[in-house]
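Sharing a chain and its predicted structure for anyone who wants a worked example. Both blocks are below, sequence first, tokens second.
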Amino acid sequence: MKYFKTYSVCIVFALCLWGVGCGDARPTSKNPDSPAPTTSANAPSVSASTLPSVLHPFQEVPRAMRTEAMNGLGTIRNALREYKMENGSYPTSIQGQTMNNVTILNVKPGDLAGKYFTDSGYAFSIVTANDFLLTATGYNGVVKDKTVTLDSDGNWGGTLQ
């Protein structure tokens, strides 16, 4: 493991020297006819945000998990808005139901199934005539029992950060 960390740092350093992923490493000059100075001021800089994403690519996994839940909740929100536009209010009969038990919305079984969240993981926690609270609960791996919520005002929450 010690060699892997050292090797990773060397690769990141080399990529940054070549200007890959660290901005434009080419020297710039205001006068295109003058040669670029060869000072250390022209050396590429490594931003603080570049190193963590390159050194620790697995930090992006929780973001992918949360994005999956947010996409599913957004789909349900859009279906609820469509229902309200057609019927004048949200369907209060789905209070406490999960998505796999609801057939009145324009979402087919399996539309929300993903790697970390399934149809049965999307629940209608609170549904009144004018408001709702949706909850996505993970079923798999590191998101098991973690939640992402969305209310009718567009506020996101939950335990998966």
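Comments welcome. Confidence is low (pLDDT under 50) at residues 1-27, 47-58.
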